[in-house]
Amino acid sequence: MPSNTTLHRQRTLGGMIGILVLAFGLGYHFFPRLFHAEPGEVARRNLPTLPAAAPGGAAAANEPATEELNAGPPLTLAPTAVIAARLSREHTRLPEQLTPDPPRLRALLDRAAKALAAGRLAGDKDGAAALYLQAAKDKPDSRRAAQGVIDVRARLVAQIERDLALGNAEDATDQLATLQQLPDSKDDVARFTAALKTLTDVRPLLAKAAGLLQQGKADEPAGRSALDIYRQVQQLDPQNAVAEQGVLDVQHVVLDRALAAVAQNDFARADKVLVEAQAIRPGSQQLHDVRQRVEDMRVARASGVLAQAHSALDAGNLALARQLAAQAQATSPQLEGLAAFEQQLVNAQLYASYKPGQVFSDRYVDLPGQSPAMVVIPTGSFMMGAADDDSGRSASEQPLHKVSIEQGFAMSRSAITVGQFREFVRESGYVPDSVKHGGASVYDERSGAMRDDGNATWQDDYAGHTAADNLPVVNVSWADAKAYADWLAKRTGKKYRLPSEAEFAYALRGGTTTRYWWGDDMPQRKVENLTGSRDRSPSGRRWNHAFRGYDDGYWGPAPAMSFAANPFGLYDMGGNVSEWMADCWHDNYIRAPVDGSAWLNPGCGVRVLRGGSWGSSPDQARSAWRQGADAGVRSGRVGFRVVREL
């Protein structure tokens, strides 16, 4: 339980708070100006909005309300109390009061204050103006009377300015008649008289403009539209709020046309209309809002069309996908994702939806397993053959000619390995030529040369010994290589084949124009399995003609992909083993195809070999080097790789 002392303190504190609240309420009621508020004005604190079409000012109480046009954020005017307070502070010179106001005068001033608080400024003898003027006449040194006259004048000036802005000439005229009776009002009276004359001139124009606006003639016909009339009013009265609101109403009508065009997916028309709206009222909030809405709808529409384009592309309908993408771009040229989709279209057309440089494998359709890893080769063109200044060139490598690869293709990342070829033989039952006809040409360590070995087969390495599965398969004929490619095509349902000479030459260079794909000089790093001056055979033999200072660590073929990839992501293109091409051999490039296709003759028995091997001289490792070989040749220096059409 609280003590008596505590209860006494609580009651005392509560009583003091109650007295303060009561004093505040009484002060607010009888002296509202102390709190920057006046009775009757509190309800008007919210900023009023102008009617959209009010040719004659505010509607009278007995007139039907006119329908307002929704023109976005309306114009606003400050409350008269705010303007009056400012004006009152500008007229603070008060007389020096010599004697106190007598009771009768105080009563008169109280009546005047009540009239002022109630908003009765003008009118009969009970108006605030008349009462304060009477008090000032009865006692010229009364500071309260002088302040009242100042307050009435400020309130009248504020109301007249507001009525003029609203086009309310009648009320402004009545207030002006009262203002003329107050001292120090000459300048304001002259200014308002001139403004009233202007208002009289523009009122018919405002009425005409409002009528044209209601008739739908907002901005046309040119010279006879509501906009033209509102512009004329603004020339006569630059501060006319009704004309300014009218201009915004016209712009709103024009902006509605832009939205209507968007609803019909006519964004070109919408853009044109937005330009017209910009010329009417630059920088308006409603213009900004509608422009943003149009842009949002534009992006939404274009995104929807682009989604349809993706669906068409997924379904394989490239023509429809391209058409829809064009529509999306026309709608929104800067739409996010357009550039990526254009690249997808190109990839779909040229690379079966793969990307240049992408590595993939095709699964077999009728048994477990998959194709060798394939690399997508980009389209392009290159100069095929040897230039006149290429040392080591031969006549078969000329003339230098341009070849264009216009359709993408994929090439196996490396030469086909023993393990991959073994899978083919096991699953297909194919008998390779090295088994069917017996033997191959293998390396003889004793003589340092290649020799025929009747027992060597595709399962052996370059020296006739059993080969590891990760080594490139050698001792295979052209027919063996083609049989493997045909088997892959059957197993995967895709178009596998041997590469054309042009495809191989293009892929070997990888976009380079130098002597070798890695440059013009001796390699500075391990790039390929080449003949290096520092290479040693098992018995210590050296190469007679080799790359100076080069040592790759292998005398015969190295496991596939043991060295660097060329710029297209392919391995062992310029070394390790030479490879069979689909082309028939021709002594030169005269009349050679320029589209990348194989150069074939019916029944030809000599085919093209491309790419240097582990035993090739530096001249034979050049990107332009080529050689013809009987299709039945089986050598420890020759293998193959495959191409997959896209």
What is the topological layout?
Blueprint: H1 4-30, H2 80-90, H3 103-118, H4 128-138, H5 143-166, H6 169-179, H7 186-214, H8 226-236, H9 241-263, H10 267-280, H11 285-314, H12 318-331, H13 338-351, E1 359-360, E2 374-377, E3 380-384, E4 401-405, E5 409-412, H14 418-428, H15 433-438, E6 440-444, E7 449-453, H16 478-492, E8 496-497, H17 501-509, E9 578-584, E10 606-610, E11 626-630, E12 638-639, E13 643-645
Parallel strand pairs: 9-12
Antiparallel strand pairs: 1-2, 2-5, 3-4, 5-13, 6-7, 8-13, 9-10, 10-11
The proportion of residues forming helix, as a percent range, comes to 40-55%
Number of helices: 17
Overall mean pLDDT score?
87
Radius of gyration, rounded? 49 Å
Given the helix and strand composition, which structural class is it? alpha+beta
Tally the beta strands: 13
What is the global morphology?
rod-shaped
Task: Describe this structure as you would to a colleague.
- It contains 17 helices and 13 strands.
- It is α+β, with helices and mostly antiparallel strands and 646 residues long.
- It folds into five domains: 1-30; 68-184, no CATH class; 205-296, no CATH class; 303-351, no CATH class; 374-416 and 468-645, paralog of FGE (formylglycine-generating enzyme).
- A five-stranded antiparallel β-sheet has the order 1-2-5-13-8.
- A hairpin with a 4-residue loop joins strand 6 and strand 7.
- Helix 12 (318-331) runs antiparallel to helix 13 (338-351).
- The chain is rod-shaped and about 145 Å long.
- It starts with a helix and ends with a strand.
- The model is unreliable at 21-76 (pLDDT under 50).
